Amino acid sequence: MQKRPVDVAVISDLHLGTYACKAKEFVNYLNSIEPRLLILNGDIIDGWQFSKHYFPTHHIAAIQYIFHLLSTGTRVIYITGNHDETLRRYADLHLGNFQLADKVVIEIDGKMNWIFHGDVFDHTTTNSAKFWGKLGSNGYAILLGFNRIINKMMRMFGKEKVSLSKKVMEQFHKRFVQIDAFETMIAELAIEKKYDCVICGHIHQPEKRVFENDKGKVTYLNSGDWVEHMTSLEYYNNDWHVYTHLQEEAKTETLKQPKPKPEVVTNEISIYLHSLTQPSTI
């Protein structure tokens, strides 16, 4: 299977270290593309549920493949999220063609793209609400495990799989996170700051839509997750696309090739790093 060349790939909410993480599918996806720039937009490693007793080989393989991309010339930017918030103390770390940041602004083909995880706009993950957020995260992990058992039984009887966890998450977002308000607030702020696109993750809802008001317009994008949706954002042919990975897609073969010298900063892609110290400064 031939790999697809993409200029930029944005992935978020992988949640390595949890039972919900679809690490095998994630590796298959990475193995199917040739990105010039890979952006890991938060919650890649789940520090909230991390346990030294559970980090299987395919989760390790996901990290190894990211390092493989680094070694073969792909630039990788890791943007911190709330589940990997401990990394925020090391924001602005720059090692070769790897960078760690809290948010970035990328100029692509003359358009400014504002990229961050998005948790600072979610009231359920700040201050005292963080405790309930962590408790809910653990409950969601248990529900996902229960959901897998149900789906195994459904397959035994020739039935289609169901996603109870997805329905529960949708209801949670509807009642507490209020996705429409979340997206609108981010889009309006991006319009105020004169950005062309704003990209986030966090809410596990892949999306591409245009917001417009009397001050201007902006394209809002969300990269989704690798727990339920298995989605990413890809930039190619001068536009952003929401990509959904299918479990049935064949695994591509990794060919051993000479490692090229990293040449990842081009005239078409310029990157500006910014630290996020407080939510009010985003």
UniProtKB/TrEMBL annotation:
Coiled coil: none annotated. Residues 8-206 form the Calcineurin-like phosphoesterase domain. Keywords: Cell inner membrane, Cell membrane, Manganese, Membrane, Metal-binding. Pfam families: Metallophos. Gene3D superfamilies: 3.60.21.10. This is UDP-2,3-diacylglucosamine diphosphatase. It comes from Terrimonas ginsenosidimutans.
